[in-house]
Write a structure and sequence with these properties.
Blueprint: E1 4-7, H1 11-23, E2 27-33, H2 40-44, E3 47-52, H3 63-73, E4 77-79, H4 89-97, E5 101-102, H5 107-114, H6 116-125, H7 141-151, E6 155-159, E7 168-171, H8 174-192, E8 197-201, E9 207-215, E10 221-233, E11 236-242, H9 249-265, E12 270-278, E13 285-291, H10 298-305, H11 309-317, E14 335-342, E15 354-355, E16 358-360, E17 367-371, E18 378-379, E19 386-394, H12 397-410, E20 412-414, H13 420-426, H14 430-434, H15 441-445
Parallel strand pairs: 1-2, 1-4, 2-3, 4-5
Antiparallel strand pairs: 6-7, 6-8, 9-10, 9-12, 10-11, 11-14, 12-13, 14-19, 15-18, 16-20, 17-19
Helix pairs in contact: 4-5, 7-8
Domain ATP-grasp: 120-318
GO molecular function, one term: ATP binding
Domain Biotin carboxylation: 1-447
């Protein structure tokens, strides 16, 4: 087993990884920016190294500084968490070239799945359902218009190198496509250094369902179960639950089989997630993307399976067998819900950083809080607005919803703005309570105001 682990990340995911490392007797090494010096993950690690100023490019994305920290502390392995360098194939290669263990999939798998067009084509060849769309980048707006004519409007315009809901727009007609194509292309070039654009069918009513996979050390790929991720704002997730209330046993079998095919197509190792769009009317689902890392929402899968996914990642990276029986891992128990507690206002979801003056976490049976902040810490504007994840496990969905309502009421945060009031509203909302909701639920709860001419 790995004996020392550098965590190339921050906040709640760094604390999360440190917790497992401590339980396994692995020395944890944190890297941090100057802006994060007072956060809990820095003091909780066995050792911590400052790798630069607040700007992520100079700290958490600074490969040279992170590798220097690994060398100076004698780290044996690197865990990238999520975001930052976690899906950077070149970083993975550099880590391994330095003689360190990379706790993640191969650089080749990251590369294969990092380009959405290449990923779509690989999945189609492997027999995984993909939505109608372009097989090659739409190099010009004329090519995009021609592709859309064959697909049918509305279409989704997507940055081929994008992720996390970024670089996506809907075009309802040709005029809209002309506008959105230029916007997405410019955004993609600026954010990802790659202006390649994908055009695919847009589903007005769709659910976002994903499957957790693990590529084991012995070469097998196993699919655990699915997560429902349809409560989103600006294509970014706010709430996840497992299992999905929309997935029947028969549909689940199809999801799991497709996810295994996806992993096997790229020789996947370690933890990954196969994301899909589900048409609730027809029961059809289509491959969306594969996230080649640990997901933010991994705790709900942990709770219903009774495993520690970070431990499984470390075991795979060490060449060890999993803690579970791959033949029976599909079995689940209970229902779990995760709420992303963000430093943003609960109406418009705009960031609201600030110093935390009150931080009281809820507790009780079936309640878990993975937090990056605490009393007297400061949420700065330099990073993602996620402050904590509130996770509950119930005997069934009704019990989980009741525990979530109580936990939201018992979570007190003052200082930064926060979206706890939104969750209190959502957990009483008829559409969400019914389980029959889709990715438009937040937009229906928060309809855009029409400006008067």
């Amino acid at each position: 087993m790995i004996e020392s682990l550098l965590i190339a990340n921050r906040g709640e995911i760094a604390r999360r990884i440190i917790r497992t490392a401590r339980r396994l007797g692995i020395r944890s090494i944190a890297v941090y920016s100057e802006a994060d010096a007072d956060l809990p993950f820095v003091t909780e690690a066995d050792e911590a190294v400052c790798v630069g100023p607040a700007n992520p490019a100079q700290s958490y994305r600074n490969t040279e500084a992170i590798l220097a920290a690994a060398k100076s502390t004698g780290a044996q392995a690197v865990h990238p968490g999520y975001g930052f360098l976690s899906e950077n194939a070149e970083f993975a290669r550099t880590v391994e070239a330095a003689g360190l263990v990379w706790v993640g999939p191969s650089a080749d798998a990251i590369t294969a799945m990092g380009d959405k067009i290449n990923a779509r084509n690989l999945m189609a060849a492997a027999g995984v359902p993909v939505a109608p769309g372009t097989h090659d980048p739409a190099a010009t707006v004329a090519a995009a218009i021609e592709a859309a004519a064959g697909i049918g409007y509305p279409v989704m315009v997507k940055a081929a190198a994008g992720g996390g809901g970024m670089g996506m727009a809907v075009a309802e007609d040709e005029d809209g496509l002309r506008t959105e194509y230029d916007k997405v292309r410019a955004f993609a070039e600026r954010m990802f250094g790659d202006g390649s654009v994908l055009i695919e069918r847009y589903f007005p009513r769709v659910r976002h369902v994903e499957v957790q996979i693990l590529g084991l050390a012995d070469g097998r790929v196993v699919a655990l179960s699915e997560r429902e991720c349809s409560v989103q704002r600006r294509n970014q997730k706010l709430v996840e639950e497992a299992p999905s209330p929309a997935v029947s046993p028969e549909l689940r079998e199809r999801f799991l089989a497709a996810a295994v095919k996806a992993g096997e197509a790229v020789g996947y190792r370690n933890a990954g997630t196969v994301e899909c769009l589900l048409d609730p009317t027809t029961g059809e689902f289509f491959f969306l993307e594969m996230n080649t890392r640990l997901q933010v929402e991994h705790p709900i899968t942990e709770l219903i399976h009774g495993i520690d996914l970070v431990e499984e990642q470390l075991r795979i990276a060490s060449g060890a067998a999993p803690t579970f029986d791959p033949a029976t891992i599909h079995a689940t128990s209970g229902h779990a819900i995760e709420l992303r507690i963000n430093a943003e206002d609960p109406k418009r979801f705009l960031p609201g950083p600030g110093q935390v003056t009150t931080w009281i976490e809820p507790s009780g049976e079936g309640v878990r809080v993975d937090a990056g902040y605490g009393p007297e810490t400061t949420v700065t504007p330099f990073y993602d607005s996620l402050m904590a994840k509130l996770i509950v496990l119930g005997t069934d969905r009704t019990d989980a919803l009741a525990k979530a309502r109580a936990a939201v009421a018992g979570f007190e945060i003052a200082g930064p703005k926060n979206n706890l009031p939104f969750f209190a509203e959502l957990l009483e909302h008829d559409e969400f309570l019914s389980g029959d909701y889709d990715t438009g639920i937040v937009a229906r709860m928060r309809p855009a105001k029409v400006k008067k001419g």
